[in-house]
Amino acid sequence: MDGLPVDEAVPMLFRMGPLNEPYAGLARSTSTAAPECRGALGTSLDEPLHVRAAGRRVYVFAPAAWTAASIARAREVAQ
Questions:
Q1: Distances in Å between the alpha carbon of 65 and those of 6, 59, 70, 71?
Q2: pLDDT classification of 63: cutoffs 50, 70, 90
Q3: Could you write out the DSSP letters of every residue in the chain?
Q4: Rounded CA gap, 78 and 27, in Å?
């Protein structure tokens, strides 16, 4: 990815079906991610992972409109 005009590479850890399992470890630790993917990750409220933010930005997506309850859940996921 060297030389590409991107500010951030975000591993999106959802909507991958059975293929998601090998990548679930990225939610807990940055050590297995490529260097350019260690600063952030993405998850979804309908496929939540236990995310250890550890200084990373966590992008949480919702399959429906945001509500006070879904915002609260997103805050829990991203701790």
A1: 28, 16, 9, 10
A2: very high
A3: -TT---S----B-SS-GGGGGGGTHHHH-STTS-GGGSSEEEEETTS------TT-EEEEE-SS---HHHHHHHHHHT-
A4: 10
Return the higher-pLDDT residue of 60 and 33.
60
Q: Which two tokens stand for residue 52?
A: 């250890």
Token output for 17: 């079906």
Instruction: Report yes or no: 52 and 28 within 8 Å, Cβ to Cβ.
Output: yes
Global confidence as pTM: 0.77
Q: What's the mean pLDDT when you consider all of the chain? A: 83
Going from N- to C-terminal start, the domains of the chain cover: 17-77
How far is 6 from 11, CA to CA, in rounded Å? 14
